[in-house]
Amino acid sequence: MDLSVLHAVKSPDRDYTMKDKLNGLTSPLGCRFLEWSGWYNQNISQRLLGHYRLYQLFKAKSQVDSQLSLPVAYMANYRTLHIIKYVLSCITAVLYYICTLGDSYHPVAVEQLNKQLLYRQYTILQEFLAKAEVDFDKALHSVYSADGNPSFRA
Hints:
mainly alpha
């Protein structure tokens, strides 16, 4: 997978070695650590990468009811712990706000978008996970494209 699609600034002067190394983690422990540490909440592209990585782990381990599609089963499974992660993110945002005397905590906004993807606009995440199986880059770009999902802009 080409991780350069996650680079915010396309410049040869920027060094993304460490970011690419962390984004390249695919082990169960590595992905779960990145999820719980908030690494995937840097921006919506990172968040989608997180869903893709966790979905791959879910697929490898799950015994899903044949009546559910894998993306739907993954999202149902992810939602079970999402509220805990969301509460922790909100607590962190409040502490950050207090300690910085009023600065906003950006990852909580990404977490809010993630909440939208899980509960209100779940078809976007469902389609992304299905398309990412074939081509992650195209799936990522389709989330942002006007013809792919006009109701969602990150």
